[in-house]
């Protein structure tokens, strides 16, 4: 099972199958980061990324002070994985006249899975940027983006409500020498809570498309964000065949 070249997705797939097949029971403790790293002969960062994938997909849940426990609720969620070789452009392409606004940019305690994904204790400080995109009088996009707090001094633009080219991830890469090697997008349909419903100006409980994005440089998370799109907003994704493009 151990291999120096094994990737974090292979490790995640291994434990996902064990959890789905009930060989690891719902609620049972998963091996620690250190134990996984030792068993698979990988770096602790690789082991941590594997557990984060399981957490993002609903197959693991953090237990304060104890690591992770298996979580399998097939009637609540099912994961369908699509692997794309290539680079996804950052953000969306807006129409002329669309208005992109940064609503807040601050250092604040991490909430929800943010601390877990960033690799810090829940409630530890992180950089949170919130924004929206308006088309006329309608809000067509809301977003939350978390960044590691240590980037505040290196990229002071993270704490401003301005959004200018080349974008904050590009600034982070230029300031730190880190480079995004994996961008993971997870899409799910949910029902609007009160706060988002008020932001979109629609009734609470309407369906919403949520995209969770994690950008990773192979050593740690650069950005963890969630973007919400209301009904009647189409998120169109185009794929270009690299071989055909080269010709």
Automatic annotation (TrEMBL):
Every HTH gntR-type domain range: 5-73
Residue ranges of the TM segments: none
Domain of life: Bacteria
InterPro entries xref list: Bact_HTH_transcr_reg (IPR050679), Chorismate_lyase_/UTRA_dom_sf (IPR028978), Tscrpt_reg_HTH_GntR (IPR000524), UTRA (IPR011663), WH-like_DNA-bd_sf (IPR036388), WH_DNA-bd_sf (IPR036390)
Keyword Amino-acid biosynthesis set for record: no
Keywords: DNA-binding, Transcription, Transcription regulation
Annotated protein name in UniProt: HTH gntR-type domain-containing protein
Organism per entry: Kitasatospora kazusensis
């Amino acid at each position: 099972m151990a291999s120096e070249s094994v990737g974090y997705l292979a490790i995640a797939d291994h434990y996902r199958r064990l959890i789905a097949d009930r060989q690891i029971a719902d609620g049972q403790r998963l091996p620690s980061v250190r134990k996984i790293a030792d068993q698979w002969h990988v770096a602790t960062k690789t082991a941590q990324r594997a557990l984060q994938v399981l957490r993002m997909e609903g197959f693991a849940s953090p237990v304060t002070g104890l690591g992770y426990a298996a979580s399998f609720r097939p009637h609540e969620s099912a994961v369908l994985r699509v692997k794309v070789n290539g680079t996804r452009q950052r953000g969306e392409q807006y129409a002329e006249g669309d208005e992109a606004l940064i609503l807040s940019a601050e250092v604040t305690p991490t909430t929800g899975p943010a601390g877990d994904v960033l690799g810090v204790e829940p409630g530890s400080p992180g950089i949170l940027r919130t924004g929206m995109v308006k088309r006329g009088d309608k809000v067509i996009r809301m977003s939350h983006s978390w960044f590691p707090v240590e980037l505040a001094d290196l990229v002071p633009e993270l704490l401003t409500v301005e959004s200018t080219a080349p974008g904050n991830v590009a600034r982070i890469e230029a300031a730190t020498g880190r480079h995004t090697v994996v961008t993971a997008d997870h899409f799910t349909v949910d029902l609007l809570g009160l706060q988002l419903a008020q932001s979109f100006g629609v009734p609470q409980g309407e369906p919403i498309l949520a995209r969770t994005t994690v950008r990773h440089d192979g050593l740690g998370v650069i950005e963890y964000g969630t973007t919400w799109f209301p009904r009647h907003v189409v998120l169109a994704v185009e794929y270009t065949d690299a071989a055909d493009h080269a010709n």
